[in-house]
Amino acid sequence: MPVEGQTSNTYQITSVDASINGAAFYCFVQNVAGNTQSSVCTVTALSKPVLTQDVSTTSQTLTEGDTIALTAGATGAAGIQWYYKKGDEAPKPVDGATTAEQPERFAGKRVLIIDDIVTTGATLAECSRTLLQAGASDVVYAAFAAPRIQD
C-alpha cells in the first residue's frame, strides 16, 4: 500500500511509535519502460521500559555482616542491570547483577550495543557477558565518545 504523499527519494518518520512495529517499507519506482522495487526494510519499534516498582529500600544503616535485599521491577525491559556508586565516582555495574529477562530474544542473534559514552568499558563488558550467556552468537558495540587512547 503506498504511503500517502510520499514521493521523494527520502521517507522520514518522525516520532516512531509501536503502531508501525513489524511494518515493512520499500520504494517502488516506475516509468514508461517498467518498474522495480527496493529491498524491504522491516521496522521493529521498541518501547522504553517502564519502572513498575522503584527500589524498595532508599537508605539503610547496616552493620558489617548484615544482609540487604534491593528490589526493583520493570515492564518492557530486556534485562536488568544494577549499578554501584560511591561519592563522586562514576557508576559501576555490579558484577553478576545483570540478567536477560527474555533470553530467547537473543538466542543465535548478533547483537549491537550502542552506548553514548564509554569510560571504563565495564558496562559494555557486563552487558556483553550477559547477552552471550543468553545465547547471542556475537556482541558488538559502538559508542559516540570514549577516552583517548595514548600511544
Quick rundown:
This protein has 151 residues and is mostly beta strands.
Structural notes for this entry:
The protein has 151 residues and is mainly beta. Helix content is 8%, strand content 33%. It contains 1 helix and 10 strands, in the order E-E-E-E-E-E-E-E-E-H-E. The strands form 5 sheets. Strands 1-4 form a two-stranded antiparallel ribbon. A two-stranded antiparallel ribbon has the order 2-3. The protein has a two-stranded antiparallel sheet with strand order 5-6. A hairpin with a 7-residue loop joins strand 7 and strand 8. The longest helix has 12 residues, at 122-133. The mean pLDDT is 81.
Helix percentage range: under 10%
Shape: elongated
What amount of the residues lies in strands?
25-35%
Class inferred from helices and paired strands: mainly beta
Unreliable stretches covering 5 or more consecutive residues: none
- Number of contiguous helices: 1
Q: Mean of the pLDDT scores?
A: 81
Topology:
Blueprint: E1 24-25, E2 28-31, E3 34-37, E4 41-42, E5 50-53, E6 73-75, E7 79-84, E8 92-100, E9 110-117, H1 122-133, E10 138-145
Parallel strand pairs: 9-10
Antiparallel strand pairs: 1-4, 2-3, 5-6, 7-8
Question: Descriptors for this entry?
Answer:
8% helix; two-stranded antiparallel ribbon; 151 residues; mainly beta
